[in-house]
Each structure stands twice: as C-alpha cells, then as structure tokens.
Specification:
The protein is an alpha+beta fold. The chain contains 10 helices and 17 strands. The chain has helices at residues 2-11, 20-24, 26-37, 157-167, 189-196, 202-205, 217-220, 229-240, 341-366, 382-399, and strands at 42-46, 55-61, 64-70, 76-80, 95-97, 101-102, 109-110, 116-118, 135-141, 144-148, 175-185, 248-249, 255-260, 290-295, 299-303, 308-317, 320-330. It binds 1-methyl-L-proline, FE2/S2 (inorganic) cluster and fe (iii) ion (FE).
Length: 407
C-alpha cells in the first residue's frame, strides 16, 4: 500500500482533482488518519462550549475517543476518553457537564484535571496517581480549542499569535453558544474541504448565502484579497479602525486569515443582510464583513461584527464526514429579545444542507470507475488547488522514513 500510495501521490497533477482512491479507498483513508488527522492540530470545540468547571466536549478521531474538559482551575485540557481500569469509554455524549468524570462501567472517578480520585476495592497496593487519564495535547487559537494526538505536537505558536490577534476584537471569551448543528455528509472529508475552498458553486447552490456573501473569486480564493478593489478598500478601512484584516497565510499554507466585505450594505449572514444579534462590544462598526480563518485539515470559520461561526469537520470513514457548526453570540444577548434563532441560523443551515447535497453527489460521481480527475478553474478554484496541493505535500512528507511533517 505504502508504495502504491506514494506512486499515486507522485502521479497527482497540480490543478486537477484527486484520483478516485483518495476519495473512496479505505486504505488511503487509514493513511489520511495516520499521516494527517493523528498528527496535526485538530479543532475540537469553541471555548464558549466550556462555560463551567466540568463542561466537556467529546470527539472521535479515527480510533481515538477524546474528551476535552474544563478543570476547577479554569484550564481546558484534553484526555484520551478511555478509562484506566478496563478501557471503557468514559463520556459517551457529544458534550455535557459533570462535576467529576465517572466511568459508567465500575465508577472509577476522575477529576476534570485528569487525576483518578476514587476506585473501589482496588487494594492497598493500588496507586491511584499512576492511573490518571492519559493527556492529549491541547491549545487555543482565536478562542478555539485544538487538540493533537501526536506524541510531539507540531509548533502552534505562529497560528496562535496571528489568529488571536485577528480575532481579538470579537471577544471570544465573552461569547456563548446560541446554536449548534451536527450533520453527517456521505462524502470523503476532502470533498467537504474542497467544496468549502471555492465559490464557483455558490451562485448555483446557495441562493440565501449569496444575498450577503460575495462569490468574487479574488476575495475567497488563494490570493491576497487586496487584488480585488472591494477587498482592498475593506481591508484598509478595517485596518485603520484597528481590526487586523490583511490576508496572511502560513509558510506551509496550512492556515489563512483574511477579512472580506459582504455584498452591498449587508452586515451579517441573514436573509435581509441586517444584523442577527447585538454588535460585539469590541467591534468598531457593524459592516466589518467576515474574518475568514481556515486551518487544515478540519476547520473554517467566520468572525462577524455580531456573531461568530465555527465549523468542525471530522472524518468518520472514507465516505462519511461529520460537520458541526456552532453559532456564537455575546453572552449577555438574550434569545427572543436580542436575537431570533431562526434569523441567526437559517442562512448557514440552508447553506450546509446545500453543500451536503453537493458533496454527496460528488462522492457518487468520483466513486464511478468512469471518473477521471478533471481540471480546476485557476480563476475560480485557486483555493481548492491550494488545499489539494497542501494535502499532497503533507502526505508525501509523511511517507518518508520517520514520517516527516510538512514544515
Ligand atoms: O465558508 C466559506 O468560507 C466558503 C468560502 C467560499 C464558499 N464558502 C462559503
Ligand atoms: Fe472504567 Fe471499570 S472500565 S471503571
Ligand atoms: Fe458551498
């Protein structure tokens, strides 16, 4: 498999969609997990999902169940969600609140900081301090909690510094979850990411999003948004008001930040373009457009003047992907008084469902033996080319002895 995969990777032509096995083969999927998902920083949850001691979020990353939980000291940590007694998964719900993490099998009881506090009838020789939950790397950027399963996590300082700076005025520590949606798309995770990295499909698929979101490829592609006059004017106006907005991309192209304008007078992703929630206190004006932040392989995000959208992508199998979307508003905003949930969520609920259908039909097509990789539009799909090139480089690097990582 390793040799076959390396040949497939080397045969891959930049500017063309991937060969069929990358979208459908369980062996390639297993290698995606090993080479990318189990060694890169993966977005797990927004910090707003941990309002109290014991607030937790779980996720399944390949074979690894993980729990992220806030301790009494306020620190958000990640652990293998595997009991140190006989290996039961401890937390089975997607999220919850628990003063202690109690294993449902024999009630071994852990502090949210991972220490084993109690285990019944284990004898006098038993050393509880040797049976704490196994830690997983955990770090934050732009008010988002990331985890990493690698023994040694990749350097995260650069993305943290930039993402924190760009997102600062959105005040992520003062937001709350207004709504969360969870969908499963019958498609490979790379089709989900590819779909997100272009707006070639937007006019044909997203009637409600297109009311406010510009499908100008110069704004959402792989180029500096300054190449679009509207993008440049927006960046300059926001930067003058103290909002970091200029296009910035990681040297290895794994993440990017840029603030883009909405269509016309729109200020939010609503059907009429007007705000959906009270303006975030740190934002200087309503029409700040959207700060876009992607981090491969699993998140893209929109930071607006009135709310924030976090997207989490997790692979389930070669042909199934979970997408969790979280809508965040200011913590003092009251539903029904300050914002209406339908108004806040309807555009992206529709957009996600439209993208799900696109991805599912795409999966059916690329699974056909008649499928052959086709050319991306350099004008419209530069972002997709950029993602696929990153993926191929990362996979090739990981095939080297010792499994190098993309620098
Ligand atoms: O969510 C996004 O950022 C992307 C950009 C282009 C299509 N989609 C809306
Ligand atoms: Fe967790 Fe027994 S497996 S207490
Ligand atoms: Fe879309």
């Amino acid at each position: 498999m390793q040799d076959d995969l390396l040949s497939l990777l080397n045969e891959q032509r930049s500017g063309f969609s991937l060969a069929r096995p990358f979208y459908a083969d369980p062996d390639v999927f297993a290698e995606d997990l090993r080479a990318i998902w189990q060694r890169e920083w993966i977005f797990a949850a927004s910090i707003a999902e941990f309002p109290k001691t014991g607030s937790y979020v779980t996720l399944q990353l390949g074979a690894y169940p993980v729990v992220v939980v806030r301790g009494a000291d306020g620190v958000i940590r990640a652990f293998h969600n595997v009991c140190r007694h006989r290996g039961q998964r401890i937390c089975s719900k997607p999220s919850g609140q628990a003063a202690k993490l109690v294993c449902p099998y024999h009630q071994w009881t852990y502090d949210p900081d991972g220490r084993l506090l109690w285990a019944r009838d284990m004898g006098t020789d038993f050393d509880a301090s040797k049976h704490g939950l196994k830690p997983v790397h955990c770090a934050q950027a732009a008010g988002m909690v990331f985890i990493c399963l690698a023994e040694e996590a990749p350097d995260f300082a650069a993305v943290q510094a930039e993402a924190d700076r760009y997102a600062a005025r959105h005040g992520m520590a003062d937001l709350k979850v207004a709504f969360q949606s969870r969908i499963v798309e019958a498609g490979n995770w790379k089709l989900v990411l590819e779909n997100n990295r272009e707006c070639y499909h937007c006019a044909g698929s997203h009637p409600s999003l297109c009311r406010t979101f510009s499908d100008d490829p110069d704004l959402v592609g792989s180029d500096d948004s300054l190449s679009s006059p509207a993008g440049a004017a927006h960046v300059n106006r926001c930067e003058e008001a103290g909002l970091p907005s200029r296009y910035v991309i990681a040297p290895n192209e794994q993440w990017r930040l840029v603030r883009i304008p909405f269509v016309g007078e729109a200020v939010s992703y609503t059907m009429d373009g007007a705000a959906a929630a009270p303006r975030l206190p740190g934002m200087p004006f309503a029409n700040a457009g959207s700060l876009l932040f992607f981090h491969y392989p699993n998140t893209w995000n929109h930071f607006l003047s009135d709310h924030v959208l976090n997207f989490r992508v997790l692979p389930i199998s070669a042909t199934e992907t979970e997408v969790v979307t979280t809508w965040l508003v200011h913590k003092d905003a009251v539903e029904g008084r300050d914002y209406d949930l339908k108004r806040l969520t309807e555009v992206w609920l529709a957009t996600n469902d439209e993208d799900r259908r696109v991805v599912e039909e795409n999966q059916i097509g690329v699974t056909s033996p008649a499928y052959e990789p086709g050319p991306y539009s350099a004008k419209q799909e530069s972002g997709v080319i950029q993602f696929v090139d990153w993926y191929v480089r990362a996979m090739i690097a990981a095939q080297a002895p010792g499994g190098a990582r993309l620098a």
